[in-house]
Every structure is written in structure tokens, then in C-alpha cells.
Amino acid sequence: MAEDASHSHNPFDAAHLIGHVKDADYFEVPRNLAAGGKLKIPQPFQLEKPLFEVADKQSMAGRLIEPLDFKLTKFMILEVVAAFIVAVIFIVLAQRMSRAGKPLGRLWNLFETMLVFIRDEVARPAIGRHDADRFLPLLWTMFFFVLGCNLLGMVPWAGSATGALATTGALALVTFGTVVGSGMAKMGPVGFWTGQVPHMELHPAMGVLLKPMIFLIEVMGLLIKHFILAIRLLANMLAGHLVLVVIMTFIVATAGHVAWPGVAAASVLGATALSLLELFVAFLQAYIFTFLSALFIGMAVHPH
Predict the structure, then answer these.
(1) Which helix (H) or strand (E) holds 99?
(2) By CB distance 3.0 to 4.6 Å, which of 28, 129, 172, 301 could disulfide with 229?
């Protein structure tokens, strides 16, 4: 209770601010729409006792890893919404394409331009013209799913699912699985993993000593690259929304003060300008994630 009281008296409390941008089992809405401004999500699948949870709640892992209890959260719902919107858009476009021979209408031209850009400026340069088209469905899906999640973060009272490590980590795992799977399919399991060690002219005695160490370093590098892929997207989306929350919190913090009108106006204008930047970042981060995924896949199928 004391902790909650401190949060209400200190709007700039770190835990209070992060609470507005992290995942939760409710949506924050205007107070006249739900008690306390929190619209609870029904939990038809939540278990009374979690299948797994970190014992030490005060540790770093305990604060980051939620119990495995099948609880529905707002980011899960937003991910389904993003996937549904992407599916509807491209199913409709596919039906139009089956009936027409050329792009018709602004919507069709807009999305076809984006698809062609990913194909010609991302996939083919990174993977190669002969192999890129096999991975295009994956890269297109990644780009538009990440973009959809990013753009939903601009909707009031929603949230950005890509601001959670669970989301970005799952996407990075998809890329990692594709990299390893495509690499082994191209060169064979033994050839792929032994190919992690670059060819070196070494004395046999030195090779026995150095090559296992280099192999371990290369495998660790492979894992770290995909971990950074997840963290890069997470950090960029989380930081932007956190800055927006801090700017708008100035309005609450100065309520009743003589400077409140000026602070409120400056905060709204600043948040508006930053939101425009966040709109650009939403597209940019979707592009970067897709480009890096394509680059990692290209390095696996063309190791030299």
C-alpha cells in the first residue's frame, strides 16, 4: 500500500512510468469507461497455479520473467489484431490480383511498392537473387507484422507489442531457426556447423588447440547476433513510448501550479512532434529488423 501511495504522489517514479508501457492483463482507458481507468481482460485460460515461475521475485530474472500461467495480456491481443489486419489486407489484395493484371487503386499500389522494395532492396541484395525468393514470404510477413505492432503502439490506450522482450525474442527465434535450418539444408548439418570455423592454414597441433575455441566463439556470436536483433527492436520501441509518457506526465505533475497552462501546452506540442518521429521510427525499425534478418539468412546460405 505504501508503494502504491508513493506512486500516486510521485508521477515520475520509475516503476510507475514503466507500468504504463509494459505488458499487463488490462488496457488503460479513460476513467469514465472503467473503474480506476483499467479495463480488465477476461482470463478463460489462466491457471490457479503457474506451471513455472522464478522463485526469487527480487532477482533480475524474477522481475523480467512472468509466471507461466496462460494469462492473456494486452500485447497478446494486439499481436493477434496486427496479424489479423495484415492477413485481411493481403487476402483482399490477393483476390484483386487474381482478377486484374495490373495494380489498380492507391491501396494496391501502396502495398505493392512496399513489397517490391523489400524484395529488390532487402532480400535479393542480402541473400542473392537465386535464393531470395524462397525467403520472401517470411521477410514480407515479418516486416508487416512488426510494422503493424509498431503502429498499434501509436493508437491511444493500446500499446506496442514490440516493446516486450517476449515478442521481439520470439521474432528473433524465428530468424535464428530459419538461419540454422536453411544453412544446414544448404550445406548439411556437419558442413554448416564446421563451416562456422573459417579456413585457416594452421599446424595440426595449433589447429587442435585453436579450432575448438574459434568454433565456440563463432557459435556464441551466432547466438548473440540474434539476441541483439531482439534487443534492438525492443529498446527502440520501448524508449520512444517511455519518453512520450514522461513528457505527458509533466501535465499531471504540475496540476494546480501557476505554470500548468504553459507546461500543458508545451507537453502536448512536444508529444505531438515526438509522435510524428515515432511514426517514422515504426517504419524504420520494421525495415531494420527485416534487413538484418535477411542479412543473417544470406550469411547462412552463402557463408563465403
Answers:
(1) helix 74-99
(2) 172
